Every structure is written in structure tokens, then in C-alpha cells.
Amino acid sequence: MSILEVNNLRKSFGTAEVLKGISLHVDRGEVVSIIGSSGSGKTTLLRCCVGLEKEYEGEIHYDGTFGMVFQNFNLFPHFTALRNVMDAPVKVQKRPKEEVLPEARELLRKVGLSDKENAYPSTLSGGQKQRVAIARALAMKPDILFFDEPTSALDPELTGEILRVIRALAEEKMTMVIVTHEMTFARNVSDHIIFMDKGVVADEGTPDQVFNSENPRTRAFLGKLST
Amino acid sequence: MSFGVILQQLGSGFLKTVLIFSVTLVLSLPLGWVVYFGRSSRNKIVSGLVIGFISIMSGTPLMLQLLLWYFGPFYLFRMNIGNYKFTALIIGFSLNYSAYFAEIYRSGVEAIDVGQYEAAQILGYSKLRTFVRIIFPQVMRIVMPAIGNEVITLVKDTSLAYSISYIEMFALAKQIAAKETTIIPFIVAGVFYYVFNYAVAKGITLTERKLAFY
Ligand SMILES: Nc1ncnc2c1ncn2[C@@H]1O[C@H](COP(=O)(O)OP(=O)(O)OP(=O)(O)O)[C@@H](O)[C@H]1O
Ligand SMILES: [Mg+2]
Q1: Residues in chain A within 8 Å Cβ distance of B140
Q2: If I label A143, which of A5, A128, B26, B181 is the partner at 20 to 30 A Cα–Cα?
Q3: How far is CA B76 from CA A91, B70, B71, B163, B204, in A?
Q4: What would you report as the CA-atom Rg of chain B, rounded to the nearest whole angstrom?
């Protein structure tokens, strides 16, 4: 059963066509990674899927709700870590605070930040901020969670802690779409990999299929990375 | 006239000065947001009118504006303006300061990262709730130093009430000085203004510190 289905998605900025007919679907419990070189349209695809880009052609269908984790975290700086996680469930979903609070604490524990619930984002490291952002997204109980390069704003030594959290989510069968440049991670965590090139899906398949692909564009992209 | 009497008379004028100051602030701080929203309206007519308003408010002397607000209704509509002085002052001061505050708010809103709106949108916050919970608190912290400057200026600007012969502290000081041929009232008035300004500046610093919790 597909949670997300995208049909022939086209998106232009002015005269530049950035997405040239993308189709994909994501099943419940599936982890899909999107890889591809800079400017190939990965972010634009995600932004269309979550409604941050409103003008496009084609169809995007959901069977459920979505959340998103940004490259730059976009935490609310005037809220503590706990409030960042709790605010939307309480204020938007109107759920009782007494019910949300233990869930929020549990989420912070899960991302390893129990001791930081009263910390403001400005006092946290990049990796800690991103883990709060993941907890914040999870607190809304989305059916599918999008990540746009969740580690690329981080120092290399901090990427591991984020990838571990995402891997743990994958083990719990959280449905996720992850744009990433971390190839080893994509290979290990994904059920399906989509390789984008110049606004089209140039190649896709299981990690083994994509990493052993005969497709020259895929090979060129993966080859460039490994050298 | 003894020093005590001078002090007492100026004290009553000082209360009027404080009243102009506080009523103006209470009205113009929120009104500034109204002006800001008008200015950033997608309706070109609305935003055009508001931009014109801001430009007139900041491009002409406040004293002239006060004179117009006070005498305008009389010359235009033959309105009886006997009891209207304080109202005219408040209209004049509040509109003028709301224009300045609107521009300050605008610079603050522009300093907010677009990612804040995007995160809020995906978490399901409505436009209104995004503004109230996410944007507004951050803007107030950003603009507090600029607001503080304007507030200090307002303390001194209250003496412009003198231009429409509203009897506040400055006007009283001048009256007494002329009658008693002494400069003591000016000195006392100066001390009042200074102390008032000092208290206001302290208040601003405290507010800034309170907003800087993150
Ligand atoms: N708001 C915009 N206005 C105009 N052009 C844009 C806009 N956003 C993206 N683009 C263009 O669309 C193309 C695809 O950008 P996109 O950000 O989707 O690429 P990406 O695959 O995410 O790249 P990266 O790996 O660097 O993040 C680029 O050429 C970019 O310049
Ligand atoms: Mg991108």
C-alpha cells in the first residue's frame, strides 16, 4: 500500500525546468533514499512533496500525513528543546498537554537528549539540534518523514549520531524518504534508491541494483564519489 | 514663588508629560503592527497608501503634524476644539510613532529566516498562529534596541506638546520662568526629564535582558 505516490511531476523556476516528469511511490514501512549530484532537483522534489512549492504540474497523492527534517534544522530558537517537540502537538493538534509531555520526553530520550529538554537551541551542537528537529517531526506522528540532507550542515564527526537515529527509525519500520550524499548509509539503510540526474529519475532499484548498475550516468556519479 | 511651589507645579506638569508618553506608547506599539501589515499587504492600493502615510509621517516635522491634528478639525469642519487638545496630541504622537515602529518591525520580520515559516507550515501552524507563536516573539527581541531608541526620543518629543499650548511640564516651566524671572524651573524640568529618561532607559535594558533568554 503506497503512502506517497508521485505521478509525472514537473516543476520550473521561470524558464528553467528543474523537475522533468518524476514518478515514484513509497510504501508503508519503506525507506527510500534519493541520491544525485548537486542541482539535480532533489530538494525541489521534496519541497513539492511537502507543499513548500505550490506551483507544479503532475500529481502528488498521500495516504496519510507527512513531516520533514531540514538540512538547517529550523528549530524555533525561542523554545526549549522540549517545547520545540511539544508545541505543535499541543497547539496545532490540540492534544492534551498531559498526554503529549510523556511522549515528547520519550522522543527526546530516543534521540539521546533527555538531559537537554530545557536547553535552548542556541546552546546545542548541530548534531543535537538536528536530533531535536527529528524528535519534533516525530511528535506529530507522521505516516512518512522526509529528510533533506540531514547531515550536510554538520561537522563530519557529528553525522554519525544523526545516521544512527535514522537507522533506528528504519528498524522500527518508519516510512522515510531521505535525500543524502552519504552513500554507505544510503546503501545500508534503504529499501529503494532513486538516482536523480538533471531533473529526471535516471536510475532506481534496490541498493544492490543501483550500486552495481550498468547505467553509465549512475556509474559516473558513484565513481566520482569514490575517487 | 518658593522652590517647593515650583516643584509642585512642575510635578503636575510632569504627570501630564508621563501621561502623553505612556498613552502614546500603548497605542503606537500595536498600531505599528497594523501599519506594518498594511504596508506589506498584497493589495497594491493598501500598501501604496500605507507607504505614502509612512513617508509623510517620517518626512515632515512632528510639530507640524501636531498643529495640523489640532487646528485641522477647526479649520476644516469648524469643530469646537476647546477640549480636544489632549486627543489631538495623542493622535499626532501615536500615528507618527506607529509609522516609525512599523518600519522597525519590518526590518525585524525581514531578519527572520524563511526556514521558520517553512518548519511551521509543515508542522501545521496556521498563518496567524505562525505569526503569534513563532515570528512575533523573535521579532520583538530583534527590534528591542531600535524600539528603545525611539522610546527615548519620545520622552523628549513630549515637550512638542508645547507647540499647541498643551500645559505639560515644559510649558509650565516656561510660564513660571517668565513670571518669576528665574531659570530654576528650567533646571528642575531638566532634572525631571533626565530622571524620566533614565528610568525609561533602565526599563528598556531590563526588557531587552528579559527577551534575551535564548
Ligand atoms: N527558488 C528557486 N528559484 C530558482 N531556481 C531554483 C530555486 N530552487 C532551486 N532552483 C534551481 O533548481 C535546480 C535544482 O535545485 P535543487 O535545490 O532541487 O537541487 P539539489 O539536487 O537539491 O542540489 P543539492 O545537492 O546541491 O542540494 C538548481 O539548478 C537550482 O539552481
Ligand atoms: Mg538540495
Answers
A1: none
A2: A128
A3: 51, 11, 9, 20, 40
A4: 20
Give the one of B115, B134, B141 whose C-beta lies nearest to A70's C-beta: B115
Q: What is the CATH number of domain B3-211?
A: 1.10.3720.10
Q: pLDDT tens digit string along A174-221?
A: 999 999 999 999 999 999 999 999 999 999 999 999 999 999 999 999
ipTM > 0.90 for the complex? yes
pTM greater than the 0.90 cutoff = yes
- The residues facing A195 across adjacent strands are A35, A203
Residue of chain A whose Cα is closest to the Cα of B140: A78
- Residue numbers of A between 125 and 164 with CB closer than 8 Å to B: 136-137, 140
A80 lines ligand 1 (CB under 6 A): no
- Distance between first and last Cα of chain B: 54
**Ligand 1 and A190: CB distance under 6 A:** no
Instruction: Tell me how far apart the terminal alpha carbons of chain A are, to the nearest angstrom.
Output: 39
Parse chain B into domains and list their residue ranges: 3-211
Distances (CA, A) of A211 to A163, A182, A227, B163: 20, 13, 15, 81
